[in-house]
Structure formats: structure tokens, C-alpha cells
Amino acid sequence: MSKPNSITLEDIVSRTSDLPTFSAAALEVMRMADSSTSRAQDIARIVSQDQAMSVRVLRLANSAFYGMSRKVSSLPEAVVVLGMRTVKNLAMVAATYPWMSKPLKGYDLAPMQMWHHSFGTALAAQTLAARTRKCDDQLAFTSGLLHDVGKVALSLWIGEKLKAIVYYAEREGMPFDEAERRILGYDHTEVGEHLGKNWNLPEEVLLGIRWHHEPESCEPYHPVADCVHLGSTISMAMGIGLGGDGLHYTFSEGCYSRLGLRPDDTDSISADYVDAFKKYETMFAAMAAA
Amino acid sequence: MTESVSSGAFLKQPSPVAPALREQQALDLMIGLAEIQVVSGLAKFTFAGLGSCVGVCVLDPEANVAGAVHIMLPKSLSGTASDMLGKFADTGIEELVRLMLAAGADVSRMQVAYAGGANVGDIGGRTSACDLGSRNLETITHVLADLRLPVKATDAGGTTGRTLRMSSQTGDVLVRTIRMGEAKLCSLRS
Question: Which chain A residues in 226-245 lie under 8 Å from chain B, judged by CB atoms?
């Protein structure tokens, strides 16, 4: 199948209307986590600069998931009660939910499915990072949350081609992302990396976005690529936000040894992961109301 | 009259239905991860987005007792709580059959169909090291054989996501995939 157009990665990002944006406050919160000198109350001050994000963070902090005995009424109080790391994750959730919860027709994703897969991958990647201690669990969460962001941009350009790409990938015996590259000239991980660079996302966050389907190609190696890869794989296997591309991706067997895991750990990790994901559904309900 | 019995980690109760309507309206049940549902009467079961998980549908057409279980993993892990039985192939199907028998079904009349069990990475004839789907299917095959339950049809394996639906009224089992759209897999009443 020949490449049907000559649209470049730059075109995808510059000519796609309705692309999501990342507020300056959200980016600053993301970068702060990388600094060990960050003071907890700085997070509250920065989040408060984005009014919409502040409202969502407070709604999340007061959701049934956290089971607070009294209402959390301010961001500084949320930081004290929930901790800086939790508030930082809530800020990332608040910054992405509004556009990730929308349908992505190009990938056959109904409303909420992109969100479920993104949050599910973030949760799994964070759990893997914490369990293996191979990388910072907040980095794994943020990178997992944004790993498929390229699909948001590419969905509009794929349009009705999804079925043809799936058919081509199956006929040629290649993974879906390779079929994307053959047909479109680039895959959703490359588009995601390009979009992330435009947003000035931290370099380590970009690694999970770019290499989540082939973590062994991440040079120099960084375990966040493996955490997001295995997190995304488990999320797909459990059918969390499964799209038209299904499970038609390569699995990197080496991720087990690189993360210090055994293949049969997958069962217990998956069982715990689904239990945790289900508990977060009360939080999703709070976001929908925000 | 439609009655439902549920078991599972994430119990989803059907909405209360007025007695006069119960005899006319089928319950519309979404079977979530690890859920088991058994209905005596009319019901429609839907499993959305099956990846490596397997949706198993069972019907006793004479007793009008239907059941479904959304299996996630092949073998129960140590310390499995009773409300988690639906998670696993080895415990989920046995629990489903037990609940159906309690609702008046007979093993000798039960018909089975299932779908799912895909693997990330089973591409171009290669088998993946992440083989949850294959192991789910292998265990399900053994459990059904041990229980002597006849399998009417399956749509399983590969790398595609599936949505599975079953109507207890018609017995029709339907599978939707991105390439094929929605197609009838079989009828558990014929």
C-alpha cells in the first residue's frame, strides 16, 4: 500500500484544529516533580494559577475515592491532607481529562475509552515503577497518562482509514504501528513525541510516549519506556479502553528481565491492577461532574 | 418473570423493574470485569471490549436460565475471596454453573459459547510471551470438558478486541470486531 499523502509530522500538529493544549501551570507542576527542592505549597500556588484545573483538583480531592471526613476547601489544604505527590497526579488528571474523555473516531474509541486506557496505563505504569523501583513512579504515571496522545492528533487524519490499516497490518503480519508508518508515514508514537516537544514536556516523559511499543529501541535505555510498555500491554489485555487497533502490537519480552520481573508475575499484577482501576471509577464520576 | 442472581467482585445490580414489566422486558446487563450474572427469564448480556479476557455465555433453553461470566485470568491466585471467583477461569465457570443450577437449570441442557482470549503480540504467526489470552482459553477448554458442557461456538484468539452479546430470548450470540462489524456467532437455542 502506498503512502496516500505527503503530510508531514509538522503538518499534523500545525494543521490539526482542536488539538489539546497543556496549560503553563500544568507544565510547571509536571516539571516541579523532577526537582527535589520543590516545596509542597509551591504546587498549590502554581495549580491555583489555572482556575479550571484548580476547581477540578478540589473536586477530585473531595471525591468519594479519598473518603475525606470533611471537605477540602483549598489547594494548600489539599496538599497538606493528600500530600504533594497525590496533588501533582490530580493536577495531571485535571489537565488531561477534559480532552481525553472525548471520543476518537479514527481509532474507534467511544467517549471515555481513550481516558480509560490512558489513566489505566498511567496507573499500571506507576504501580510497576513503584514495585520494581526502576524509575520514579510519578514519571511513569505522567508518561503513561500521555503515552497515546499522538492518537488524539492522528485520529482526525486517519478518519475512515482505520479498518484498512487493521486489514493491511493483519495481511502483512505486522504490528499496527508499523502499518501506520507504512500508510501514513509516521505512527502515533512519533506524532505524540512531536506534539509533546511542542508542549515542552520533560524529556523523560517523552520517552514513554515515543517508545511504549518498542522499549528496547529507547536509546539510551530508560526504564520508563518499559513501565509504560508493560502498563499499556496489561491495560490492553484487560480490555481497558480498547480501540479498533485492538491488541495488534508487538510485545517486548525483554521488558520482564529489564524490570526484574518474571512472566508469571503478569497474572498477579493484572489482578491487582483491575481492582485498583475499579476503585478509581468513583473519581471518574467526580471528574465528569467537574 | 425475570429474576437475576449475581456474583462477582464488582456486582452490578440490574435496575429495579416493576413486576408488570418484568414479564415483557428483558434485563439489559453489562457484564464487567470478573462479574457473574445469572438470569431466570429474559435478559440481554453485553461484554464490551474483550481483550485477553473471555466472555462466557451459558443457556439452558428449556428452563430459560441464562448466565454469563467475564473471565480475566486463567487460574485463581492464593487467597481468592468468594466474591472474586468470576475473575478466574478455574473458579468462575464452576461458580456460574452452580448459580444456574440453583436457578433451576440442568447441566445436561446447557449450551455454551464464548469469545475473547486475544494476546498482545500474536502477530504474523508468532506467539507472544504475554499469553494471558491463550492461557485463559486453555483453562476454559479444560474446565468445560471436565463439566461436560458442550461448546456451541467460539470466536477466540488473535489480536482483535471483541464485543460479545447474547440474548436469552433468541439464544443469539453476536460478536463485533473492527473488521467484521457485528456478526452472529451462533444460537444457543437451535
Answer: 233, 236-245
Radius of gyration of chain B (CA): 16
The helix (run of H) or strand (run of E) holding residue B169 is none
Give SS3 for A251.
coil
Q: Do B52 and A113 lie within an 8 Å CB cutoff?
A: no
Give the DSSP H/E element, type plus range, for residue B78.
none
ipTM above threshold 0.95: no
Q: How far apart are CA A64 and CA A31, in angstroms?
A: 29
Please choose, from the candidates A41, A35, A143, the residue with its C-alpha nearest in 3D space to the C-alpha of residue A92: A143
* Amino acid type, A193: E
pLDDT in tens, A139-172: 999 999 999 999 999 998 888 889 999 999 999 9
What are the pLDDT digits (tens) for A181-208?
999 899 999 999 999 999 999 999 999 9
The 10s digit of each residue's pLDDT in B84-121 is 899 999 999 999 999 999 999 999 999 999 999 999 99
Residue A114 CB partners (closer than 8 Å, separation 6+):
A100, A101, A102, A103, A104, A107, A148, A151, A152, A241, A243
